[in-house]
Amino acid sequence: MTRIVVDFDRCEGHGLCEQTAPEVFRLNDEGELHLRRDQVDTEHEGLVAAAVRVCPVAALKVQP
Questions:
Q1: Which helix (H) or strand (E) holds 52?
Q2: What CATH number corresponds to the domain at position 41?
Q3: Domain coverage including residue 15
Q4: Nearest CA-CA partner of 22 in 11, 8, 30, 33
Q5: Tally of domains within the chain
Q6: CA–CA distance, 21 with 61 (Å, rounded to integer)
Q7: How does strand 2-6 pair with strand 25-27?
Q8: Which pTM value belongs to this model?
Q9: How far apart are CA 51 and CA 59, in angstroms?
Q10: What DSSP letter does each residue of 3-51 carry, written as one string?
Q11: What one-character DSSP code corresponds to residue 56?
């Protein structure tokens, strides 16, 4: 499984991660990011990798 690491200080709430992988990322009404899960199974790894790439402030990372 892959682990998601979020730099919450860097996150600006653009929501591209949520659009890319809504099963994993969620923004609340205030634009604060919440993880639906902090570990990703193989089924969602591709979506999470895409979410990491589209983050405009590089607030997301994955670790094995």
A1: helix 45-54
A2: 3.30.70.20
A3: 2-63
A4: 33
A5: 1
A6: 14
A7: unpaired
A8: 0.90
A9: 10
A10: EEEE-TTT-----HHHHH-TTTEEE-TTS-EEES-SEE-TTTHHHHHHH
A11: T
Identity of the residue numbered 64: P
Amino acid at 5: V
Q: How many CB atoms lie within 10 A of CB 31?
A: 11
User: pLDDT tens digits, residue range 5-62?
Assistant: 999 999 999 999 999 999 999 999 999 999 999 899 899 999 999 999 999 999 999 9
Backbone phi, then psi, for 19, in 5-degree steps? -65, -35
Give CA–CA dist 24/36, Å, rounded: 5
Residue type at 41 in one-letter notation: D
What is the spatial distance between Cα 8 and Cα 13, in angstroms, rounded to a whole number? 9
